[in-house]
Amino acid sequence: MLTKLPTPVALYMNSLNNNNHAILNDCLAEDAHIHDIGEDNHIYGLASIKDWRGNTNDEFQLESKVINMEDKHGIIIVTSLTSGKFPSSPQLFYYFFSLCDNLITNIEIAPGEENAQL
């Protein structure tokens, strides 16, 4: 069941669609970490994340739609259907968010193995 996303998570997910990197200042901790499991890539720190996100959105022109959210013992798990200019589009992605002091400190991004062709 989809419930209201915590504000920092909602800001991050919305930023995927509007390519607004400035908003990342309001939802990510300065020392945040992202692990893009599908690309086996670790990105450390707010500045590096903003660079990575900018390049990713420019290259792939992503559009993401949140289709589910769960809170499992403080880990916010978001399921998203993402489309864009990449071979498996549209693709399910799972985002595992950790938060502290109302900021995202860690995100694990895992591609879904399910067939997302709807």
Radius of gyration: 13 Å
Write down the CATH topology: Nuclear Transport Factor 2, Chain: A
- Counted by DSSP, the helix tally is 2
Low-confidence stretches: none
Query: What would CATH call the class?
Result: Alpha Beta
Written overview of the protein:
With 118 residues, the protein is α+β, with helices and mostly antiparallel strands. It has a single domain (27-111), classed as Nuclear Transport Factor 2, Chain: A, CATH 3.10.450.50. Helices cover 23% and strands 43% of the residues. The chain contains two helices and six strands, in the order H-E-E-H-E-E-E-E. It has helices at residues 7-18, 46-60, and strands at residues 28-36, 41-44, 63-72, 75-83, 91-100, 103-111. It has a six-stranded mixed beta sheet with strand order 2-1-6-5-4-3, with helices on one face. The two termini are 19 Å apart. The model has no long low-confidence stretch (mean pLDDT 90).
Give a summary of the structure in a few sentences.
The protein is built from 2 helices and 6 strands. By secondary structure, the protein is α+β, with helices and mostly antiparallel strands.
Descriptive tags:
single chain, 118 residues, alpha+beta, Nuclear Transport Factor 2, Chain: A, 6-stranded mixed sheet, 2 helices, 6 strands
Please give the structural blueprint:
Blueprint: H1 7-18, E1 28-36, E2 41-44, H2 46-60, E3 63-72, E4 75-83, E5 91-100, E6 103-111
Parallel strand pairs: 1-6
Antiparallel strand pairs: 1-2, 3-4, 4-5, 5-6
